[in-house]
Amino acid sequence: MGDLIGKTALVTGASRGMGRATAERLAREGALVAVHYATGKDAAEEVVAGIEKDGGRAFAVQAELGVPGDVHELFLGLEQGLKERTGSTELNIVVNNAGVMGGVKPEDTTPEQFDRLVAVNAKAPFFIIQRALPNMPDGGRIINISSGLTRFANPDEIAYAMTKGAVEMLALHFAKHLGPRNITVNSVAPGITRNSNPLFGIPEAVEQMAALSAFNRVGEPQDVADVVAFLASDDARWITGAFIDASGGTLLG
Length: 253
Ligand code: NDP
Hints:
The protein has about 250 residues and is an alpha/beta fold. Helices cover about 40% and strands about 15% of the residues. It has helices at about 15-30, 40-55, 70-85, 110-130, 160-180, 205-210, 220-230, and strands spanning about 10, 30-35, 55-60, 95, 140-145, 185-190, 245. It has a seven-stranded parallel sheet with strand order 3-2-1-4-5-6-7, sandwiched between helices. Helix 1 (about 15-30) runs parallel beside helix 2 and helix 1 (about 15-30) packs across helix 7 (about 220-230). The two termini are about 35 Å apart. The structure holds NADPH dihydro-nicotinamide-adenine-dinucleotide phosphate. NADPH dihydro-nicotinamide-adenine-dinucleotide phosphate (NDP) binds near residues 18, 66 and 147.
């Protein structure tokens, strides 16, 4: 514990799910965490309050991603929050976690739905990295949340999986580009992980989803957050451009 004392982190989509668990874990390691949200103001403030109650440091920052001006809006709040607390806009860790799923059959996917998936899941992470880089000192960390669906077929999520395939390219190419600055860039691919989807309240559905994992359970947000925290730590300094399977063995087949 305390690996990230003195570091600053942005976690997108941190009002719930894996983003929330990641923000909490990074804060436990000592980082000052920007808890980004789109619509869940109360939830994000609750995450911040929980972190502070546990002795950590965090602040909430709002921005809807996937719309014009999204990254500008995000960094207005982010830089203000960082400056107020640290006196600078230095950002050591970026976790591109916010994402939307499709859940629409390929026959029924509209161009508008496709464009939104691309805008939120793939375009926003690219431009967040682009915008973050001038603020990121040598030794920074970029972690992008992909999905096991880049290796596991699900016809209802073709467009979504395409956006996650695009996200994985960020690690491959940015890792090479940023190696000289000792900035690592990696992809983490969760399997089915508990979130607020009502499916997780149906025992038969949970049983079916659990059966996909070698461990016969669904992932918990903390399972993924711990992997992200490792990649954010100094221990992971020799890993870059990697695809990390955090699917609980789902991809073993
Ligand atoms: P949740 O659905 O629990 O939460 C999504 C988060 O992203 C929320 O904080 C939400 O903000 C934010 N968000 C959604 N859309 C936007 C947007 N347009 N602009 C800004 N923020 C937005 O997420 P999960 O924990 O389920 O998933 C996290 C990541 O992991 C996603 O990238 C997802 O694709 C990926 N993943 C999830 C899996 C799973 O089984 N859960 C499996 C594999 C990958 P708010 O609520 O404030 O609006």
